[in-house]
Design the sequence.
């Protein structure tokens, strides 16, 4: 069991594979909150974890709440409303994320996942506040889930390799472009459902994924924003070395004067120039 936990810890946090990292983080958060909820239920407390998560980590639809909940456009994509919500998101992330990592790199995966989630949150906020059908009853409305981030990965992968096929139960081989289109259409149709806000977020993530790959195919990689710029190294201005005087012609008279000084005062009393002259004379 100990080895199993070590293997999981390595895959999630040390393998460098962003697919395992996001699946691991989402799953760990879900399990921790689920376990806490069980203990709170057994203790018959009035504290509800789901409500707390939505209030402090979910993206609020009300614009007035954003100044104090601005960070939720990032945090909301790591929390889920139930086991099935988590399961389907992680399955989609696993299937399409593996294909993605066969063609692109970790930095690009991180960018699409995070940027897709953030753009999805912005679509959610904008859509609910712009379209008249949603403007009533925004107070207390929030969204959580990694669906927008996962939709970004799905759409990006389908845009990059549209004819890549997956084997689906009861259907057989299906090109992933049709799966991505189906996901998008379901989200679009869902704009008239009770989960209209969530579907707006899905559409935002999908658009980000499509635009990223379209830009990449034109030679522009948006994920380069994640690259660290080299730090400027401060180099101290060192004093230039003092050129030593050349003593090509040291006269016998100078040598005698130096020797007399050594006799009267000692070698330590000689100046650097006198020591250099004496050394030069000894080599000649």
Sequence:
């Amino acid at each position: 069991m100990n080895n199993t936990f070590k293997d999981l810890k390595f895959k999630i946090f040390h393998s460098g594979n962003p697919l395992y990292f996001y699946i691991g983080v989402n799953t760990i958060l879900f399990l921790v909150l689920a376990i806490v909820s069980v203990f709170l239920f057994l203790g018959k407390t009035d504290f509800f974890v789901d409500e707390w998560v939505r209030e402090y980590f979910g993206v609020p639809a009300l614009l007035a709440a954003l100044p104090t909940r601005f960070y939720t456009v990032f945090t909301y994509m790591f929390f889920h409303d139930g086991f099935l919500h988590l399961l389907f998101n992680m399955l989609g992330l696993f299937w399409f994320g593996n294909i993605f990592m066969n063609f692109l790199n970790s930095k690009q995966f991180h960018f699409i996942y995070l940027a897709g989630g953030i753009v999805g949150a912005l679509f959610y906020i904008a859509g609910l506040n712009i379209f008249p059908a949603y403007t009533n009853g925004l107070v207390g409305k929030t969204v959580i889930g990694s669906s927008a981030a996962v939709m970004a990965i799905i759409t990006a992968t389908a845009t990059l390799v549209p004819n890549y096929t997956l084997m689906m139960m009861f259907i057989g081989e299906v090109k992933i472009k049709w799966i991505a289109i189906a996901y998008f259409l379901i989200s679009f149709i869902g704009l008239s459902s009770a989960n209209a806000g969530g579907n707006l977020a899905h559409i935002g993530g999908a658009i980000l994924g499509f635009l990223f790959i379209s830009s990449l195919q034109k030679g522009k990689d948006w994920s380069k924003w994640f690259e660290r710029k080299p730090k400027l190294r401060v180099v101290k201005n060192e004093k230039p070395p003092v050129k030593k005087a050349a003593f090509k012609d040291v006269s016998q008279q100078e040598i005698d004067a130096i020797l007399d000084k050594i006799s009267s005062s000692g070698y330590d009393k000689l100046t650097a120039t006198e020591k250099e002259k004496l050394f030069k004379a000894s080599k000649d």
Summary: The two ends are 80 Å apart (CA to CA). DSSP finds eleven helices and four strands in the chain. Residues 19 and 94 are 7 Å apart (CA to CA).
